[in-house]
Automatic annotation (TrEMBL):
Domain of life: Bacteria
Entry-linked SMART domains: REC (SM00448)
Domain Response regulatory: 4-115
Signal sequence interval, chain numbering: none
Residue positions where 4-aspartylphosphate is found in the record: D55
The organism of origin for this protein: Aquisalinus luteolus
One GO-annotated biological process of the protein: phosphorelay signal transduction system
Protein name (database record): Response regulator
Amino acid sequence: MGHRILVVDDEPLIAMEIETTLSQAGFEVVHMAQSVETALTFLKDGVQLDGAVLDANLHDESARPVVERLQELGVPLLMVSGYSADQIGPWAEEVKLLRKPIVYAELIKTLNDILA
């Protein structure tokens, strides 16, 4: 069984593309959330995760609360965004960031790197 991954993105098409790419690469996508609220609710359940891929902005809301919760839980994460770390804000500086549009080979490589 592959690494258990949470995907958080408010654009369903992108979320599905990420899920498909991760599944084909041997990861197990355990949950897909489209908002800060649904991601935080999922993370309350004490689920076992190996990593997370999330958009920096969800419906014009910062993903910062989700990032902070993942960090508290010790879950490695990869943020994807059309924005640079400077545009996102100081809280994003410690987070590995991939710029959109996503290059899926780079997504898999970077995710494997942070999980190693």
